[in-house]
Amino acid sequence: MAEDLAAAYALIKEQGIQIAQMAKLLESHIAIREAHNTLLQSLIPFVKDNPDFRRIVTDVHTVRLTSHLDRDVSNDFIGKYTEGVNALLPQELRFPIPSVEF
Q1: Which of 2, 10, 94, 96 could form a disulfide with 86 if both were Cys (CB 3.0 to 4.6 A apart)?
Q2: How many angstroms separate the CA atoms of 1 and 86, rounded?
């Protein structure tokens, strides 16, 4: 019984360490994303009316969306991805949220 409790405690402790490591990694990813968003949102006013920007954003979005779909990601992922892209763009450049059936 004592051995079982000790093993359970060790497992819980290890999982706590793993959760703490995942939280640090998540925090790091969020900080990097926020830095990217800051820079991108700062640049949008300079390029939003440029037809080449509109074309390039559309082309890159299409390629990346296709790549995600080829990896069989979830509908939720596709929606969040497109919402994330749209959050950085002015209203007139935003993409419709795709309806994907698997």
Answers
A1: 94
A2: 56
pLDDT of 100 reads: 56
Q: In angstroms, rounded to a whole number, what is the distance separating the alpha carbons of residues 45 and 68?
A: 28
Structure tokens at 92: 């007139």
Secondary structure, 3-state, the chain? CHHHHHHHHHHHHHHHHHHHHHHHHHHHHHHHHHHHHHHHHHHHHHHCCCHHHHHHHHHHHHHHHHHHHHCCCCHHHHHHHHHHHHHHCCHHHCCCCCCCCC
Evaluate if residue 60 carries a pLDDT over 90.
yes
Query: How far is 42 from 46, CA to CA, in rounded Å?
Result: 8
Quick: pLDDT tens for 18-56.
999 999 999 999 999 999 989 998 999 999 899 999 999
**Terminal CA-to-CA distance of the chain, rounded, Å?**
48
